[in-house]
Amino acid sequence: MIGAGVGGLTAAARLAALGHRVTVFEAAGTVGGKLGRYDRDGHVFDTGPSLLTLPQLFTDLDLDLVPLDPVVRHVFADGVTLDSSSSHPEFLARIAAALGPSAADDWDRLWRRAARIWDASWRSVLQRPVDTPLALAGLAWRLGDLAAIAPGLTLRGLGRRYLRDPRLRTLLDRYATYTGADPRRAPAALAAIPYAELNFGGWYVRGGLRAIADALLERCRSLGVHVELGAPVRAVTVTGGRATGVVLASGAAVACDAVVSNVDALTLYRDLLPTPGRLAGLAARSLAGFVLLLGVRGATPELAHHTVFFPRDYDAEFDAVFGGRPPADPTVFVTRADDPAVAPPGHESWFVLVNAPRHGRAPSAVDWERPGLADAYRDRVLDVLAARGLDVRSRLTFAETRTPAWLAAETLSPGGAIYGTAGGLLRPPNRGPVPGLFLVGGSTHPGGGLPMVTLSAAIVADRIGPA
């Protein structure tokens, strides 16, 4: 196993439970991958995912789950606030109160369509391998499923078809960013994401979501999985056209019957295979993220656990991000857990995220290591928050930045892409280009986010089968 992210650890535990002897090689000094944790002066931050959905996929872990209401607080550019709820009737009531009864009726219509998309996706895509786009097209779709998913329709197009209020369209558009995609180009099938989030609820893990990685590591060890930290893999060994082991950076060669890779698919195809595969030129299309870790004095009752502040021109943000420019007026996503375990008394720990171009020197990227850029953009994000009614600058005890360059270096994610280099719906398959090689994690099918990488691990374990 290459990599001890959530996908890798989940796959390791599943394979060990099937009777396999499993060794995981992790380059970093800790497990979890992007599910990171940072401590400073009594403040604790999740530096990766901040929301758990589809909790039914994690019932075998000992987690202290806290339901969130609202799941997300949306603050629109005109000052209107809308709290989402995992109770559909309650959310409709909140929409009616904030945006009017006709907006609630529109969302109800969209919700019924999203439910059909979710059912079709869950049944036919999310739990099974999809090795090629042709394989996806060749699935035994029910006619009703095809009508619901509407191949060729974008998420933006779906919103325009159902939602008259531009604020609800903006709310729907944001879910494309959950896959690192642009809503103007992302498929309408991504409407399954808000349905899953709101139908099954959004959850916080008390003490921080990093507890998921700790619980997975404990489960792996109880099953006899051997985890080697500080052990980067330099190459995948291919003998007779089949993956037969790995070579560590130390030069040690390790033979095995199957190799499961939890590194980004682009890195695997380009750097670890003896002959770069056809996906070595995989475009890094996924957006990245610019993060502030803020120590804040006092309480901020106007914040929910998750609060998103939208700009006036959402399209301008996507034009900038995918055009290689930090957005001047970005959407700002603030996570502030009401949990005494993550902040000193009388203080709060804020994780602030904005969509950002990936790190690099290509025309669609930004050199985030350019001197002064991170600090200047930190100040810009704080100014944007202040302009939207949340001026925290005088209450800061510290403000640290995490740029896409930092994420690329810490997690080996090319360009610092949050959800893997291939943003959107179709991703590299779970079966590698040579027999005996398999892929798990957010850069492969069925996608990024904690539930999806867990499903990728289940797909791979099922494919490998019992020892």
Task: Give an overview of the whole structure.
The protein is of the alpha+beta class and 467 residues long. It has 3 domains: 6-35 and 209-282 and 424-464, FAD/NAD(P)-binding domain, CATH 3.50.50; 69-201, no CATH class; 284-415. It is 33% helix and 18% strand. It is built from 14 helices and 18 strands. The protein has helices at 6-17, 88-99, 101-124, 133-137, 143-149, 155-162, 166-173, 192-200, 210-222, 265-272, 314-322, 373-387, 404-411, 450-464; strands spanning 23-25, 37-40, 43-46, 65-67, 73-75, 81-83, 203-205, 226-228, 233-239, 242-248, 253-255, 259-261, 288-297, 306-309, 332-336, 347-356, 396-402, 437-439. The strands form 6 sheets. It has a 7-stranded mixed beta sheet with strand order 6-5-14-15-16-13-17. The chain has a 3-stranded antiparallel beta sheet with strand order 9-10-11, with no helix packed on it. α1 (6-17) packs parallel to α9 (210-222).
Record keyword descriptors for this entry:
FAD/NAD(P)-binding domain, 14 helices, three-stranded antiparallel beta sheet, seven-stranded mixed beta sheet, 467 residues, 18 strands, 33% helix, alpha+beta
Helix-strand blueprint:
Elements: H1 6-17, E1 23-25, E2 37-40, E3 43-46, E4 65-67, E5 73-75, E6 81-83, H2 88-99, H3 101-124, H4 133-137, H5 143-149, H6 155-162, H7 166-173, H8 192-200, E7 203-205, H9 210-222, E8 226-228, E9 233-239, E10 242-248, E11 253-255, E12 259-261, H10 265-272, E13 288-297, E14 306-309, H11 314-322, E15 332-336, E16 347-356, H12 373-387, E17 396-402, H13 404-411, E18 437-439, H14 450-464
Parallel strand pairs: 1-8, 5-14, 12-18
Antiparallel strand pairs: 2-3, 4-7, 5-6, 9-10, 10-11, 13-16, 13-17, 14-15, 15-16
Helix pairs in contact: 1-9, 1-14, 2-3, 3-5, 3-8, 6-7
